[in-house]
Design brief:
heterodimer, A: alpha/beta, Rossmann fold, six-stranded mixed beta sheet, 8 helices, 35% helix, B: alpha/beta, ten-stranded mixed beta sheet
Chain lengths: 254, 402
């Protein structure tokens, strides 16, 4: 589903030369699989997420990226979203004055319109929202409040997964979804995420810690350092990282 | 043949009106400095003389241009006082508690020297020279003041007296097709409450000024809300005086300017008595080629101890080439007061824009949603009768309306 080949990308900072962050990253996530990306701070994890989602200022300088066999790097972020790409943000933004329900419904219908599908009806939307909120143990009142305004870190992450379940994307990128969650919330969120595991979907789980991967079991684990994948393996690689640290893996790879 | 200069047209009109000492005084106050231009204090960003010259050089308006404006408060009913350049039409049936009187002679204008356009309006207002509305009991429905130049030149003066303890809801519509220059004065007596909602709507060639003088007596209250979308040039000016103790004012506004539009919100609040509050929140958005102006001044005199006043202005520049000029001022002579002002000017947060687009919102939809989110706070305390119409103006400008 997702194929990255020798990807180089830079981030433009204000008034500074673009800084190369990804340095020849290659990765393939087949349909139906869940892959984890682990790496130390500054290794390029969030940059990878932003590059894939199409954030302005994050530019690919060389290499290829395919989603469903199509080069998608020229697409606007909204076109990528309509194609089925979802990024769960590490730091979700607050939007005062726009209730969660309004935001999600607007997003859903915008994606449907882009795909040439009819709008979701109000009763269908409400039913789906109610069911999804129940899975994630989100209070219905929270959905009436302005998006993320005054929410705790954990509530914001839960809301990200709520949106993901509502939008039913095919390629999901979870950027440090575990940060800000206590262990109970982590389990609830992971359960929610797992409901979207399907032979037709793929997931890229970006995390610092192995803990999340106890609940969202990956098929493959990749170690990102210096803007490249330096090691790949099965779930056991995450445990090795936890036990030995990144430096050991880095040395072994060099 | 060259067209007559706007100033000459005004002078000819003045000469044709019956002589009257107060009218003469207003005319002198105006002509001492002439049409406001960038050389005048308080008009640096709002050059009326230049705008009228530009307007005079434009081809005459097409019929559809003149007709294309509608009164956003129309659906609300209420008692309608309608003003055009040469006509005044009172409500068809008299709202209980409301009286009015048409005056043939000009009123005296307080502070005329400092407000040249208002002085001009008083000097040239005729048919009648002034309308005085007295509200002695709280009306059931809002009163509506509708100013429409109907494609001509309008100068108007209206005085509204809100008697002791009365609650009055006023909806002002300022429709600018060519030239309109309006002064509304409100005298709010002890314990009275005035809600004043303003919609300014104009076409691209209009030069438009709406000036208000408001006096708040003991424990009186003002709740003012405004949505303005500018014109070739527009100026909405409010001069408020807290003249006895314990009065409260909220003065909120949203201005929205697209290419070719200028919108100036100017206010002057004088705290002359103890224990009064002013809370002002003005928010604006400008697109490329649009120009917004905010000038706010709080003047707290020595006798105005325990004043609590807060002025906030935040502007959003939506494109390169958008312009907003702001001048917040505090002048404080009392020592036991809480006065604050905040003023910012910036663009949409790129992180928020990206977030919305990642969820599938097209860029234009995301920009409209975030702009709405930014501006809406300034309408949150608006008088309930007017809030839907004010919000609809905002939505129409953002392109998110029905």
């Amino acid at each position: 589903m997702l194929r990255l080949n020798d990807l180089h990308a830079s981030v433009a900072a204000d008034d500074a030369e673009p800084k190369p962050i990804l340095n020849g990253l290659s990765l393939e996530v087949p349909t139906g699989e869940v892959h984890a990306i682990m790496g130390p701070n500054g290794s390029g994890k969030s940059t990878l997420a932003y590059v894939l989602a199409g954030r302005a200022g994050y530019s690919v300088t060389s290499g290829q990226a395919e989603f469903d066999g199509d080069d998608f790097l020229a697409l606007d972020p909204e076109a990528r979203a309509a194609k089925g790409l979802f990024l769960s943000f590490q730091y979700p933004v607050e939007i005062p004055g726009v209730p969660v329900m309004t935001f999600v419904r607007t997003a859903m219908n915008a994606q449907r319109a882009a795909r040439g599908e009819p709008e979701i009806t109000a009763p269908d939307f409400l039913k789906k929202a109610r069911e999804t909120a129940a899975v994630l143990r989100i209070d219905a009142d929270m959905l009436k409040r302005p998006l993320n305004v005054g929410f705790s870190g954990g509530e914001k992450k839960r809301l990200e997964i709520f949106q993901m379940l509502m939008l039913e994307p095919r390629l999901m990128i979870l950027d440090e979804t575990d940060s800000g969650l206590d262990i109970d919330a982590l389990k609830v969120v992971a359960e929610g995420v797992n409901t979207l595991r399907a032979p037709s979907r793929a997931m890229l789980v970006i995390t610092h810690y192995q803990r999340l991967l106890d609940y969202i079991r990956p098929d493959r684990v990749h170690v990102l350092a210096g803007g490249r994948i330096i090691a790949s393996g099965g779930p056991e690689l995450a445990h090795r990282l936890e036990a030995e640290g990144y430096d050991a893996i880095r040395e072994a790879a060099s | 043949m060259t067209a007559a200069r706007p100033a000459e047209i005004f002078a000819a009109r003045y000469a044709a009106l019956p002589s009257d000492p107060r009218r003469a005084r207003a005319w002198e106050a105006f002509s001492a400095r002439g049409l406001p231009s960038r050389r005048h204090e308080g008009w640096r960003w709002t050059d009326v003389a230049a705008a009228l010259d530009r307007q005079a050089r434009l081809a005459p308006p097409e019929a559809h241009e003149v007709q294309s404006l509608a009164d956003p408060f129309e659906a609300l009913g209420g008692g309608v006082f309608r003003f055009t350049g040469d006509r005044f039409t009172p409500p068809r049936s008299r709202p209980a508690g409301v009286l009015w009187r048409e005056r043939a002679d000009a009123p005296a204008l307080n502070g005329a020297e400092a407000t040249p356009l208002a002085a001009l309006a008083v000097a040239l207002s005729s048919g009648p020279a002034s309308v005085e509305i007295e509200v002695a009991a709280s009306p059931v429905e809002p009163l509506r003041l509708v100013f429409d130049d109907q494609g001509g030149v309008m100068h108007r003066h209206v005085l509204v007296m809100v008697r002791e303890g009365v609650e009055l809801d006023v909806l002002e519509t300022h429709l600018g097709r060519v030239t309109s220059n309006v002064v509304v004065e409100y005298i709010v007596e002890d314990g009275a409450r005035l809600s004043r909602s303003i919609i300014q709507s104009a076409n691209d060639r209009a030069v438009q000024a709406a000036h208000a003088n408001i006096w708040l007596a003991r424990a009186a209250a003002l709740n003012q809300a405004c949505v303005a979308t500018g014109a070739l040039l527009s100026r909405i000016e409010t001069r408020l005086v807290h003249r006895s103790g314990g009065s409260h004012a909220r003065m909120n506004a949203v201005y929205l300017v697209r290419s070719g539009r200028h919108c100036d919100l100017t206010s002057h609040v004088r705290h002359d008595a103890e224990g009064c509050t002013t809370e002002q929140l003005v928010k604006g958005a400008a697109r490329a080629g649009g120009k917004g102006v905010f000038q706010g001044k709080f003047h707290v005199t020595r006798s105005a101890q325990k004043t609590d006043a807060k002025m906030t202005h935040h502007a959003l520049l939506l494109d390169d080439g958008a312009e907003v000029n702001a001048k917040p001022e505090l002048e404080i002579y009392a020592d036991d007061v809480a006065c604050a002002h905040g003023n910012t000017c910036g663009s949409l947060d790129p992180a928020a824009l990206f977030y919305c687009r990642q969820r599938g919102l097209p860029e234009a939809v995301a920009v409209a949603m975030l702009t709405d989110s930014f501006l809406r706070e300034a309408l949150s305390g608006a008088p309930p009768s007017a809030e839907p119409a004010l919000a609809a103006e905002l939505a129409a400008w953002l392109g998110t309306g029905e």
